[in-house]
Amino acid sequence: MSEQTPTPAQPKRVRVHHLREAKERGERITMLTAYDAPTAQIFDEVGTDVLLVGDSLGDNFYGYRSTIPVTVDEMIHHTRAVAGATRRALVVADLPFGSYEASPQVAHATAVRMLKEAGAQAVKFEGGRRVAEHVRLLTSTGIPVMGHLGFTPQSENVLGGKRVQGRGQEAAERLSEDAIALQEAGAFAVVLEMVPAPLAARITEILAIPTIGIGAGPHCDGQVLVWPDMAGLSAWSPRFAKQYGQLRTALLDAARAYNDEVRTGAFPDAEHSFPE
Ligand code: KIV
Predict the structure, then answer these.
(1) Residues near ligand 1 with C-beta < 6 Å?
(2) 150, 171 in Cβ contact below 8 A?
(3) pLDDT, mean of residues 196-209
């Protein structure tokens, strides 16, 4: 998104219409998850277009076994930290399991909290046609919505685990119709998670709004990764997540060296002590 190149003095905030314009120009959109201020500041500084305060903070921050236990209060807490540290990126907050599905009005009440109390500029939630009315109400009341299709982690108990979605003609048709329904309801972008690359390419072609892929091949308008996977901090990451760093190894080495030096008395040395 060249038009959006940030300068330290006056970065221009990425808005939802910039993402659509990026798609029209054929420019790829970058998105990462962020759960706290220091990482949000770093990802923002290097020009990441969208920071998603994902409910993946359940497994990646709190050590839960899935995203299901994540609460609205936890999302607000982390979104506030990310929004406060971000000058340019569009900050999108996930609506967690149980906080929006029941009705458009319930979704609206939760989304209002994300914007008002936490400082998000948009929200994301999972589902296609079944949440189209939710998307319509939110967008018509000033709350931009990002959709999420394919493997939707909050439905893992119905989907039978973490599996590729949209395989076979019928499933592919359903997924495409869900994507069109989200666009027609006013969503500004759609995440496609664990979808065969040719299907993601087809949906990307038929939609005017951008698709953001995760495990959905190279033809989406943008890509998102969960940041501990991207930076090599996770002990385990999915096959589709490329590691661009080795933070886990770096932290293991640092913590081992610290323990050794404390135990041998090498730390603190004269350089790290006050002489008087
Ligand atoms: O919660 C999350 O991190 C997400 C991404 C996987 C898209 O929804």
Answers:
(1) 33, 52, 54-56, 94, 148, 191, 193, 214, 224, 226
(2) no
(3) 98
